[in-house]
Design brief:
- This protein is an alpha/beta fold.
- The chain has 2 domains: about 120 residues, Rossmann fold (3-Layer(aba) Sandwich), CATH 3.40.50; about 220 residues, Dihydrodipicolinate Reductase, domain 2, CATH 3.30.360.10.
- A 9-stranded mixed β-sheet has the order 14-13-12-11-7-10-9-8-15. Strands 3-2-1-4-5-6 form a 6-stranded parallel β-sheet, with helices on both faces.
- Strand 2, helix 2 and strand 3 form a beta-alpha-beta unit.
- The longest helix has 20 residues.
- The chain is globular, with a radius of gyration of 20 Å.
- It starts with 5 loop residues before the first strand and ends in a 9-residue tail after the last strand.
- The structure holds nicotinamide-adenine-dinucleotide (NAD).
Amino acid sequence: MGDRTLRVGLIGLGGVCAAVHYPGFARIPGVEIAGLCEANAEQLARRQREWGIAAGFTDAQELLKQVKPDAVVISTPNVSHREQVLRALDAGCHVLCEKPLGMTVPETVEMYDAARASGRRHMTAFTYRFVPGLTYLRSLVRTGALGEIRHARIQRLHDWGESSLGWRQYKAMAGSGELGDMGTHRIDYAEDVLGPIRSVCGAMKQVVLRDRTRDGQACEPQDVEDWVAWIAEFASGVTGVFEMGKLAKGRGPDGGHDFCELNGSDASAVYQLHTPHEILLAPRGQPYAPRPVPEEFLKRPGSPRDPNEGDPIQTFRYDQAWEFVSAIREGRECEPSFYHGMRAQAVAEAIMESVRSRQWVNVPTVKDSDE
Ligand SMILES: NC(=O)c1ccc[n+]([C@@H]2O[C@H](COP(=O)([O-])OP(=O)(O)OC[C@H]3O[C@@H](n4cnc5c(N)ncnc54)[C@H](O)[C@@H]3O)[C@@H](O)[C@H]2O)c1
């Protein structure tokens, strides 16, 4: 790409775009947010005003045709990811797409194949890979500092209340509930830290109806799970116990928690989202004690972000945009790519199959990453 400005289009301007994508891309030198697309015209006009961007469209095809961006970020509801990804690749764009990458494994395979055939960069927005504490934990595992890892315990607990979650609570729009929403992030980071999951045994529950909006209006009841849990056997022999719930209070200061605990033969270690710059470490036979995340793990190399600026629980997320832009500039694969989006979908579907059949299910090898 040389020194040429990278022109980025943002598609779907809701919560995650405003909190993560816009601030992430806006701070990178040599990146121009060249156009916006949002189906809701009022929302589009508001974002155009807030962000001072003239080119705005309610149809993504118009954005692609008129703005001709080099790259797009897709943060629309899950049901539209496939079509938008394929169209953007067809228009010659590099694509960063939100998770879950698609609604089913075949959709994600199609998206991965199309991205590889296009020669463009492709990335799945598994944001938690960029938490400093988790990056440090991964390095402790990779360097053998914890010894042989035996057990993993991964939890995402929070209480979102009992009113409607909008598109997120319908299978037709989201594909699944808590599993696709919070579970796929944890499948991805667990495999990144510990290697592939070989088989799973899951349970799911829809706890409440969510048939009222926040302001008390009646709405279609939800038809997806509020809670999901599974045991995983990793190919390495590690056992993992995962639990995620939208009606499950956590122990963090915001009433939720995101937690990954590893028990190794030499030491145990814990990552927690609410202390992103610190982990807990316990050499064998000693109690846990806080350990600051070393400087080199506080941000991705070269990232324009100051790790000490702003709320560290939010700002690490901006490194996702930096990774995407860096991969485009350097002509290398993004980490995580669509391969990882496809892989997380395969594990998620094995969990769903296990819930349906009440049996352990092996995770199929969908494709090798270098195929
Ligand atoms: N990586 C993360 O940490 C993270 C966090 C939150 C959400 N997400 C994912 O991001 C996506 C969006 O989630 P959100 O919370 O921002 O939802 P949201 O409802 O806040 O925003 C989605 C926006 O897309 C717009 N939209 C819908 N269909 C569209 C279309 N065809 N073309 C253009 N715009 C369209 C909606 O009007 C809405 O403004 C989902 O896939 C979700 O799973 C990821």
